[in-house]
Design a protein that fits this description.
The chain is globular. It is α/β, with parallel strands linked by helices. The longest helix has 17 residues. It folds into two domains: 162 residues, Rossmann fold; 139 residues, Rossmann fold (3-Layer(aba) Sandwich), CATH 3.40.50.2020. The protein has eight helices and 14 strands. Keywords: ATP-binding, Kinase, Magnesium, Metal-binding, Nucleotide biosynthesis, Nucleotide-binding, Transferase. It comes from Sandaracinus amylolyticus.
């Protein structure tokens, strides 16, 4: 059975890097917009009997990226693919895994159902914001961890006095995973989210005074959480410039300006989403080898156990 790699428009550079790591060519694919905004996709060549992997993070613009993923998956299935796998380096709507009010949808479940309409046999994700979202998708999910990749990029920039900081209680387990690998202590910022754009930090657990903080998170969206965390750390005695690391660097809206104003010593992100690599002391660690390894193992019916989400 042949392996075919279909790369959508959401992150073509990552798709190309995965193809290079696998030693395959990207499958011929057209994905374009009509003047009215409708999406047209068409797959060339032959896919009959193939294992087809569709690389398409649901990155901004999220709606377009999501619909393109579904259309590509359906096109591959109708072209005779033996198996189709959605490769989602970044899964949008993972923050919407529960309702907090009577008039709200369960968005993560609905998005999972939409992806399921394309009849993908499996999905590959990386560092879901809420790991439980895996249970809201209708197909088996291989939830990979980019933590070892980010740790490797951080190792050269982590001074002996560093402390690994979770910017909220939900990130404590992730911070602990970083701390074990970097052999550094852990601290946690206590955060309250006021809105989708504003957060407030109101306390820290752990010793941070006189230490270099390394803030680790699964994603940086507008940067409000990082800003609030760094301000709280400074108020508690951190004087060295912070180091910031995350898997998904969405960096939307004022994120770059906010981070730049705080003058971090270093920012480590992965290429799970495409972003402009300017304006920050930034290092982009590629997850292409991780994804290529997972794709190869799935194609060859081998275990992914050591690649799955780190605890």
């Amino acid at each position: 059975m042949s392996l075919a790699l279909v790369v959508g428009t959401a992150n073509p550079s990552l798709g190309g890097a995965i193809a290079n790591a696998l030693g395959v060519e990207r499958h011929p694919c057209i994905a374009e917009r009509f003047p009215d905004g409708e999406i047209r996709v068409e797959l060339g060549g032959t896919l009959r009997g193939c294992d087809v992997f569709v690389v398409q993070p649901t990155a901004p613009p999220v709606g377009d990226s999501l619909l393109e993923l579904v259309l590509l998956g359906d096109a591959a299935r109708r072209a005779g693919a033996a198996r189709t796998v959605a490769v989602l380096p970044y899964f949008g709507y993972a923050r919407a895994d529960r309702r907090t009010g009577e008039g709200q949808p369960l968005a993560a479940r609905l998005v999972g159902d939409l992806i399921g309409c394309a009849r993908f046999d499996r999905a590959i994700t990386v560092d879901l914001h809420t790991p439980g979202v895996e249970g809201l998708l209708p197909m088996p999910v291989d939830h990979l961890s980019a933590i070892p990749t980010v740790v490797s990029a951080l190792a050269a920039h982590a001074p002996e006095d560093a402390v690994i900081v979770a910017p909220d209680l939900g990130g404590a387990k992730r911070a602990d995973a970083f701390a074990r690998r970097l052999h550094r202590p852990v601290a946690v910022v206590h955060k309250t989210r006021i809105s989708g754009r504003q957060v407030e930090a109101h306390g820290i657990t752990g010793e941070v005074a006189g230490r270099t903080p390394i803030l680790v998170d699964d994603m940086i969206s507008t940067g409000s959480t990082i800003v609030a965390s760094i301000e709280a750390l400074r108020a508690h005695g951190c004087t060295a410039p912070a180091i910031v690391a995350a898997t998904h660097g969405l960096l939307v809206g004022p994120a770059r300006e906010r981070l730049t104003s705080l003058a971090p010593a270093h920012v480590v992100l992965t290429d799970s989403v495409a972003h402009d690599a300017s304006g920050l002391p930034e290092h982009v660690a590629s997850i292409a080898p991780l994804l290529a390894d997972a794709i190869r193992r799935i194609h060859e019916r081998r275990s992914l156990a050591d690649l799955l989400h780190a605890s």
